[in-house]
Amino acid sequence: xxxxxxxxxxxxxxxxxxxxxxxxxxxxxxxxxxxxxxxxxxxxxxxxxxxxxxxxxxxxxxxxxxxxxxxxxxxxxxxxxxxxxxxxxxxxxxxxxxxxxxxxxxxxxxxxxxxxxxxxxxxxxxxxxxxxxxxxxxxxxxxxxxxxxxxxxxxxxxxxxxxxxxxxxxxxxxxxxxxxxxxxxxxxxxxxxxxxxxxxxxxxxxxxxxxxxxxxxxxxxxxxxxxxxxxxxxxxxxxxxxxxxxxxxxxx
Length: 252
Fold this sequence. Notes:
Blueprint: H1 3-11, E1 20-24, E2 32-36, H2 42-50, E3 63-68, H3 73-82, E4 88-89, E5 95-100, E6 121-126, H4 130-133, E7 136-142, H5 156-164, H6 169-175, E8 194-201, E9 206-211, E10 216-219, E11 230-236, E12 238-239
Antiparallel strand pairs: 1-2, 2-9, 3-5, 4-12, 5-11, 6-9, 6-11, 7-8, 7-10
């Protein structure tokens, strides 16, 4: 597909006028939203994604990505509608499709939850069928500190460091994401460091948006016969930067 044809195809992708929106709270009121039925024809988006060349980038993402210099206007408008007033997003000028590695290929540091520190809103659209892959995205609480995420400037960080027995906030932030066999969230036994507090199940054509500072991770099925998890990923900055992100149901 030529660049011109690709841009035309992306611009024609239609977002459903009546998606189902559910707002959830993890660390603060309304800091996550699940939108089902995002695209009118999600299989067209999947097929377009699979035509791209996927490569590994310099990020810590455990998989491959295809980056397209374009944006999907209807999706931008939908995201703006579910963000609470006062949040203005910087429109993305690239579309990101991602293929996740199999669990057996994850590095040790990829066995613990993470946060996206460079953006305020993270998100993904599942482009695979649940019965072909399973899993979803999990949100976690760090057991010893009680933290559900890291929000810089939050006065609770000092108290969290004390609860966890760390000498200070900086030392805590390094240590809580340090991998170990017993800290892994993918063992058959519960992690000694992390507790799953909310699971968003994988469902085709489901959009998940959340405050990117929350601890999160893909929930993976280790069976070798499971298929590849394909997603469209979103990394959004909010102007001005907000200490907490809030979402709302679609205004009527």
